[in-house]
Here is the input.
Amino acid sequence: MARYIAFRLLVVVPVMVGIMVVTFFVTHVLPADPAVEAAGAYPTPALVRAARIRLGLNHSIFVQLWTYAKQVVQGNLGSSAVTGRSVATEIVDRLPSTLELITLSMVVACTLGVGVAIIASRRGRGIRDGVGKVYGAFGASVPDYFLALLLILLFYTALHVFPAPLGQAGPTAPTITDRSGAYFLDAILAGNGSAVWVGFQHLVLPVAALGIVFGSPIYRVARASIESIERSPYIDYVTMMGGGRRFVLGYVMQNALPPIVTLTGIIYGLLLGGAVLVETVFGWGGVGQYAVQAVDNADYYAIQGFVLMAALFSVLVYFAVDLLHAALDPRVRRAM
Amino acid sequence: MASAPGEVVLAIDSLRVRARRRSGAREIVRGVSLHVDAGEVLGIVGASGCGKTTTLRAAIRHLPAGVEIVSGTITFKGQDVRAMSDERLRELRGGQIGIVVQNPAAALNPVKTVRAQMLGLAGQHGLTPTPADLERLLGEVGLDDPERVLHSYPHELSGGMAQRVLIATALALHPALILADEPTSALDVTVQAQIMELLRRLIDDRGLAAVLVTHDIALVAQYCDRIVVMNEGEVVEADAADVVIRAPQAAYTQELLGAAEVRDAIGTVELVGGADG
Amino acid sequence: MAVPTLDVQLGPAPEARRRTRWRARRELLGGVLFAAIVLACLIGPLFADAPNTTNLAARLAAPSGAHWFGTDDIGRDIFARVLVGGRMDLLIGISGALVSAIVGCTLGVLLGAWGGRAGEVVMRSLDVIQAFPLLVFAFALLAFLSRSVLTIVLAVAFVNIPIFIRLTRTETLVVVQLPFVEAARCSGNPRWRLLLRHVLPNVMTSSLAQLTTTAGFAIILTGGLSFLGVGIQPPTAEWGSMVAEGAQYLESGQWWTAVFPGLAIVLTVMSIQLVGDRFQATETDRG
Here is the structure.
């Protein structure tokens, strides 16, 4: 088991290197010229030349790649062509707020998806089954940004239950020490009750939008998996031997979880950048928005920094997924 | 709990079971009556699809969707099974009527150890056996290394070992009746005899009642006290084992026994509850 | 409750029967709805107000008899714009899905039949690509290319190709190993003929189901891209960009600017999905 973990961690390195190289080349063959962008509002040829040298673009692409690789290993992801600040710093600034958002959203999505699947898979209950089906179709048809807008319309504009979509805390929020960049988390760490409440209120709608939409594919997979396991001989046996409903459900769930876990991991990895639309609607200031702005500005280092970080995140998530699979199923452990 | 000797443990009277299909309903069990007494093994034999498994499952009201009992009475130790509440039925299953199935390895939850499963089921019936109790039981069913088996996962067990685990699990719940549905069909020939011998011995030692359902007439001939022969949902013959084997009345029974090899094999085998016992 | 199995020949239980009837009704509903939407978008604009006529006097008017869906911030009739915008979304969604299906299926079949080890490598790289949020991917593509309907269709098609490759490659791998294919090959049939006659029909069904899912996703993706500013540019009408433009008025209560186009997206995608159910193998696939 320890060998397996060590092996998986080792594989991370070549994967990351591969991604870095590919991204590097892809961003450098794109038509936009970062030197032009970096040269400011009125890019005269002289300014552009100066920008080229400043950004190191006058060297061959392989030299650039090598320089970059060396930097990355030291933790330096370069400087943003737009702001001049360290890309690593900029990303780390925005990462916690996005992580906070997508992690909570995934918790909601899983709870909703698996919960509805369990309820809907009881046979003979027409209404519950129907609700399940509607939810399954729902998530595939409703865009997350639209649901976000609808929620704002209903709960802010009409009912005034939740605050305006003005970022993580809004303009009137109590100030707290910025330890992680995620307001809600920081509020908890600071023990500031009113700040926690403000942070919470601002989290509800975006988390609901993402959670409801992404809970739908989880529901579909959970439903299919549960119904498949329910037909197994061992479920049949344990029912015939007097297993109670909850007991049998426990048996079913442990066997039904693997594909659900896999899908959850995939969605979680995707959401790092994929939450950008909801982030935009709520003015969240997350990492997805940063990536979008970087692409808009042809900010090479920022783009690459984001891709590397998103890839690392996905790789770590998949690693965790594999560990979960091993924890759930002894046959997987044996194969390791 | 074991029953008083001679007590009628399970009685089925005029059972009718219907299966609903797209083209209409079809009766798959048509007026079947049988009974099992304490200390005896009843064999139900017939070809695939004759309704013997359905009858068995009807006894614990565990039928698939679309299959339902139409009429008839099912009595376990005098209690009406059809009228039982869901909770009472749950206690009955396993706690008083144990099950042994055809594919033992598939009947075990692949992600839990033998120990966890046995303890789990025992807990569902309010029993708290210690691991030592379980090891002792696993030893009784003929497993060589009970401690290792107890901590094994199902995929680490052979077919024969898994069947022994199932038998031990059934016994751990102290039932009065064992229902065995083709318990050896999926096992190697050499293991088959061992398992059947084991079952018969355990049943005798504990004074249990048992129903053995199989398509193999040699099996019922060798291990059952009484035999019920079923064909297409009906009982065509029911009598003491040696009577059914040696002097079959029904044409269908004679067909089943028809193969000369079978008759020869049976002729050389000692019948349970035969002319001597 | 668990469903025990018997060695008895049973038809589908009455519950299963009821479900099939419901399901047929749902699919029919989807088909009718989809046809109605397409028809409305194609023919409707001929009868409605011109979608680009501005009327500042009637800006941000609530839905009424004159303007069924209200007007937007420069007085254009939203109902007309929704109908016209539908043409754009349907065009992009369907053609994008078709392109990605054609390219993806072809590549998938080729990989499955002749890929071998290289096929595995390609699949692993596809894994990496698919792990990347499609939205950002499409956004990046469009940010660097000129923004026209064609490039949007291509971008949308591009991000969906891996799914079709994966699907058809798996199917192809299974089919080429079947005994009868082996036999046909031994008797001298060239592989391409085998592929055409045996693999293609099998692959078609699952690809068709995936096609409808992809078309729905393509429409949502297009909307998302417009939201980020790289989709269809104003003043051309398109549901996603209408939602984006209308979003700013939600807080002040002029909900119709964003809600109607959004609902159009939801209804259209849902009806496409229902039509796609026709090709799904089993009930539980869709939940």
About this structure: The two ends of chain A are 7 Å apart (CA to CA). The mean pLDDT of chain A is 83. The longest helix of chain A spans residues 193-230. Chain A touches chain B through 22 residues (CB under 8 Å).
